[in-house]
Amino acid sequence: MSLLKINDLKIYYPIRGGFFRTVVDNVRAVDGISFELQPGETYGLVGESGCGKTTTGRAIIGLNHVTSGEVLFEGNDLAKLSRGERRKYTKDIQMIFQDPYSSLNARKNVLNIIAEPLRNFERLSPKEELVRVQELVARVGLSPESIYKYPHQFSGGQRQRIGIARALALKPKLIIADEPVSALDVSVQAQVLNFMQEIQEDFGLTYLFISHDLGIIQHMCDRIGIMYRGRFVEEGSASEIYTNPQHVYTKRLIAAIPEMDPEKRFEKMHLRQAINQEYKNDYNNYFDKDGRMFDLKKISETHSVAMQ
Ligand SMILES: Nc1ncnc2c1ncn2[C@@H]1O[C@H](COP(=O)(O)OP(=O)(O)OP(=O)(O)O)[C@@H](O)[C@H]1O
Ligand SMILES: [Mg+2]
Q1: I need a surface site. Which of 19, 88, 170, 207 has the fewest CB within 10 A?
Q2: Is the pTM here over 0.90, yes or no?
Q3: What is residue 284's predicted lDDT score, i.e. its pLDDT?
């Protein structure tokens, strides 16, 4: 059984207008997406700003309402549970946020930050709690005395490690990582990403990895879903997406990955021009007359594309 299965998820925000503030329309932040995560895999959700990635992640963890559709975690539909009933799954699904500056409470020291989920869910003596926090701090590569320090006394990369330690405290099964490194220096990004891969093995974690950066997604993910305006344009294994992209939007994203090799830059520029031309010429193959994406169609067992 898949660990997480999303079925036709829709999340709309009402737009109110007029004197009576009635609902005049909806922002279709997520407009009918479906995907599954197998235990132990890393699934990448990628797409440009505003396409609905964070909204999806927050809905899975219960921070966003769900307009319709299913969020099945180990077969249980979380979207239909009340807050109280959700509680037993809260331990199993944790989120790492983009901004390690604002996602940690500045007035709490590291001990209190990491112990908070433990206090909510487990009855530990102060001594047991301290041992658990020390283990977690060591596991994320921070020194033992850091537990008495406050978030502002750490670098961005260290802060993200504190966020990871807190996420790991309850031994979750699924971690939703929403742009976990995009606020960090490029030099620190690779460290944090490699570290996330290490703990994935150690803790047997499944990741839903959200990013707008296809380079990072390529490095981290087994399978990838490409989003555009709240819908999926393409889904496939990482290699299918990178070596055999089918949708022009996916091709554009891949062509936009910066080329490090100066000798290949010229080639890449031509590729980009060719794809922009394809986008103009073949627009009708990819979008219907209302400019909406087609539904996904399977082109192989693992690869689907939203084409006519
Ligand atoms: N509370 C809200 N009320 C109304 N519209 C919202 C709300 N939250 C998000 N939206 C809209 O939903 C859409 C999707 O937003 P979301 O934050 O999920 O995008 P994203 O893919 O995470 O983008 P980014 O890469 O910039 O983080 C956007 O058009 C956004 O304006
Ligand atoms: Mg986002």
Answers
A1: 19
A2: yes
A3: 83
